[in-house]
Write a structure and sequence with these properties.
There is one protein chain. About 65% of the residues lie in helices and about 10% in strands. The chain has about 350 residues and is of the alpha+beta class. It folds into two domains: about 1-135, no CATH class; about 205-335, 2-Layer Sandwich (Heat Shock Protein 90). The chain is rod-shaped, with a radius of gyration of 38 Å.
Length: about 350
């Protein structure tokens, strides 16, 4: 604890050490005070001790005001001690004893100033390391809280999805088995998507590249060799909070299209992302046979199906809405806040 307080004191002097000319003026004042004290106590001192009050002045100035003021104080103090307290007094005559005394003084103050300067640099590095450690800790804590929140959301989503399956199956054992198998497939898909999402190399890429690889995996899994997917998205990045529901929506819509939109196994699916003001729109369109006859913007005939409810729930996680068109194929539009 005491060591930490010393480092805190050293760090607290950082503003004084950036004052420039003020530090030089402090060096002059400290030298004058040291000279005054030395003159006052001189009658009580035995012969010698020319630097008695000047050493503390140099140390204090170097500690509180930095390297240059410390050197200024050392030079002025050395000249004052030489002139007033090293014989022959009141002159700058250089003799052998004077040279030895001055060399001794220069060595001591040089060591003191150098050690203080090194100590300040070490304290600055220590403070930087401590701040970086605190920042990393805060980032880790935030990431852990975000992960906990995301896990809780995913568990709630799975629970809601299973309730929908239970409601759809009713009391029919065959329907229940089908529902369980369907739930298994959906959960397995979600698991693969989450593993892919939590790969740092995937999340750090532009969203267009992410969806391009995601669609390639879906086409390969479905064996849809004659279905072409085009991606038209700006080079933006989404955090996991938005990328997770968006990718799950895309998986649901594209999987549904691969199952039902192309009876002959041929067709195309286009994904695009545009920003309109403070909103973004993800469009997923296929040129298949369409969900049902209807007008643009109409809710599909199977709008109450489990898949549509899942998509609507995922869109709600984004604070967004989803709409459909059933003309010349099927188009799903997911609109959400651009700022997240």
């Amino acid at each position: 604890m005491a060591r930490l307080k010393v480092w805190d004191i050293i760090y607290a002097t950082r503003r004084l050490r950036t004052l420039g000319v003020v530090g030089d003026l402090a060096a002059v004042v400290a030298t004058a005070l040291a000279l005054l004290v030395r003159l006052v106590i001189d009658p009580a001192l035995p012969a010698g001790f020319p630097y008695l009050t000047f050493f503390p002045a140099v140390v204090l100035i170097a500690f509180f005001f930095g390297l240059r003021p410390g050197i200024v104080c050392a030079v002025l103090s050395g000249l004052a001690a030489w002139y007033f307290f090293i014989p022959p007094f009141y002159s700058f005559e250089m003799t052998s004893p004077t040279a030895i005394a001055l060399a001794f003084y220069l060595f001591i103050v040089a060591v003191d100033i150098a050690l203080i300067h090194i100590m300040h640099q070490a304290a600055a590095r220590l403070r930087e390391d401590a701040e970086e450690t605190a920042l990393l800790y805060e980032q880790q804590r935030t990431m852990f809280q975000e992960l906990q929140h995301r896990v809780a959301n995913n568990m709630q989503f799975v629970s809601a999805m299973l309730r929908l399956y239970k409601k759809r199956a009713g009391d029919d054992p065959a329907a229940m088995l089908t529902a369980l198998d369907d739930a298994r497939v959906r959960l397995d898909t979600m698991s693969r998507i989450h593993r892919y999402l939590h790969d740092p190399a995937s999340v750090s890429r532009p969203v267009g590249d992410f969806f391009r690889d995601l669609c390639a995996q879906l086409l390969e899994a479905a064996g849809a060799k004659d279905v072409r997917v085009t991606i038209d998205m700006p080079p933006v990045q989404f955090d996991l909070t938005r990328l997770t529901p968006l990718s799950l929506i895309a998986v649901e819509v594209i999987t549904n299209a691969l199952k039902h939109a192309f009876p002959d196994g041929r067709g195309s699916i286009a994904l695009s992302l545009v920003q309109a003001g403070d909103r973004m729109v993800l469009t997923i369109a296929d040129d298949g046979r369409g969900m049902s006859p209807g007008v643009p913007g109409a809710i599909p005939a199977d709008g109450g199906s489990l898949g549509m409810k899942i998509i609507t729930s995922l869109a709600a996680q984004l604070g967004g809405t989803i709409s459909y068109e059933a003309a010349h194929g099927t188009t799903a539009r997911i609109e959400f806040d651009a700022a997240g």
